[in-house]
Amino acid sequence: MNRTPLKRSRILRMALTGALEPPSGEGEPGHEKPFLLKAVQIALVVSLYWFISISMVFLNKYLLDSPSLRLDAPLFVTFYQCLVTVLLCKALSLLASCWPGTVDFPSMRMDLKVSRSILPLSVVFIGMITFNNLCLKYVGVAFYNVGRSLTTVFNVLLSYVLLKQATSFYALLTCGIIIGGFWLGIDQEGEEGTLSWVGTLFGVLASLCVSLNAIYTKKVLPSVDSSIWRLTFYNNVNACALFVPLLLVFGELQSLAAFDKLGSAHFWGMMTLGGLFGFAIGYVTGLQIKFTSPLTHNVSGTAKACAQTVLAVLYFNETKSFLWWTSNLMVLGGSSAYTWVKGLEMKKAQGEPSPKEGEKDGMGV
Fold first, then answer.
1. Is the per-residue pLDDT at 146 higher than 70?
2. Where does residue 210 rank: exposed (0-12), middle (13-18), buried (19+ CB within 10 A)?
3. Number of neighbouring beta carbons within 10 Å of residue 129
4. What is the dihedral of CA 338, 343, 345, 346, to 10 degrees?
5. Which single residue of 151, 188, 228, 244 could bond 207 by disulfide (Cβ 3.0 to 4.6 Å)?
6. Can you give the residue ranges of the Sugar phosphate transporter domain (predicted)?
7. In the prediction, which pLDDT does 362 show?
8. pLDDT in tens, 288-328
9. What CA–CA distance (Å, rounded) separates 207 from 199?
10. Domain boundaries in the chain?
C-alpha cells in the first residue's frame, strides 16, 4: 500500500519532537501491536543497546589510549571499524542469497543514487564517531558521560533553528540543569587535575553530531526502504571513502608505518572485535531510534552513560568527590526531567483540537 509522501518540514518535526510514526490518518490503521509485546521489544532493544555501547566504549578506550599499545591513530581505528561493518554487511548479504531460508538479510547492492542521498547523514555520522573517539582518547571513561551530555540541549537549539519552534520555560529549565551539571563536572575535573579542554571540546562536538545523526537517520530511512541494515551498509561505505583523504591529511598512515605492533595478532584481533561492536552499535542505534524516537534514544544514551560512569569508576578504582557525582546526577536528572516535561506537553497538545491543514503545513525549513 502506497503512503502519501511526507513533506520535509514534517519529517524534521517528527525527528526533533520524537514522533515515531506520522500523525493519525497518515499511517495504516488497525496494525497497532499489543502493549505488552511493544514494551518487551523496546526493553530488549534498549538493553541490547546498553550492553553493546558500554562494551564498545571500554574497548575503544583500550585501542585509543592504552599504554601497552601506544597507538596515536584515532581516525584509523574509526576507519577500520567502518570497514569491518561494510564487509560484515556484504558477507551476510551473500549468505542470505545462498541460503535464503536460513539467513535472513537484505541484499546489498551498491547504488550510487542511494549513496548520494545518504551522504549528508554519512558526514554527520563521521563527525559523531570521530569526535566520540577523540573525546574518549583525551578524557577518562568516567568523565565521558558529562563530556557528551549536551545532546538534549542541542535538540532544543536545532528545534528552534530549523523549525522556529519555541521551547517552554520548564523545558528550558531542565536544559539549564544539564548545562549546570556539565560545567560542574568540568570544574571538578579541573580540581582533580584531570581536565582535558581538548577532550571536552570534542565531547561538545560529539553531542551536536549525535543530535544531528538522530534527525538525519529518521529523514533518510525511506531512501533505503526503512531498512536499518541497508542504511548501515551505505552509511559505512560512504564513511570509508571519506576517511581515506582524512588519513592522508592528518598523517596517520605515517604513524601506522612506525607502529611496532602492526604485525601483532592480538592488536588486529582487538581491532576486529572493535569493528564487530561498531557493526552492532550502528544497527542497534538505528533500531532503538526506530522502536522509540530520536529523543528517547538520546535520553537512553544519557542514562546508559551514567551506568557506564559507575562501572568505569569501579573498574579503574577511582575516587570521586561529592560534587563530581552531583554533576553526573544533574545531567541525568535534567535529561529525565526534560523527557517528562515534553511528555506532558505532548499529552496536552493531543487533547487540544488539531489546527487546520494550512496552518500545520505552513512552517517551512
1. yes
2. buried
3. 26
4. 140
5. 151
6. 41-323
7. 39
8. 877 887 667 767 776 787 788 889 999 888 888 999 999 98
9. 12
10. 52-349
The 3-state secondary structure of the chain reads: CCCCCCCHHHHHHHHHHCCCCCCCCCCCCCCCCCHHHHHHHHHHHHHHHHHHHHHHHHHHHHHHHCCCCCCCCHHHHHHHHHHHHHHHHHHHHHHHHHCCCCCCCCCCCCCHHHHHHHHHHHHHHHHHHHHHHHHHHHCCHHHHHHHCCCHHHHHHHHHHHHHCCCCCHHHHHHHHHHHHHHHHHHHHHHHHCCCCHHHHHHHHHHHHHHHHHHHHHHHHHHHHCCCHHHHHHHHHHHHHHHHHHHHHHCCHHHHHHCCCCCCCHHHHHHHHHHHHHHHHHHHHHHHHHHHCCHHHHHHHHHHHHHHHHHHHHHHCCCCCCHHHHHHHHHHHHHHHHHHHHHHHHHHHHHHCCCCCHHHHCCCCC
- Is residue 41 a contact partner of residue 266, using CB atoms and an 8 Å limit? no
**What is the grid cell recorded at 196?**
582535558
Q: Three cell numbers at 272?
A: 576486529
For the cut 50, the answer to whether the pLDDT of residue 356 exceeds it is: no
Grid coordinates in use for 44? 530488549
Instruction: Return the pLDDT at 28.
Output: 46
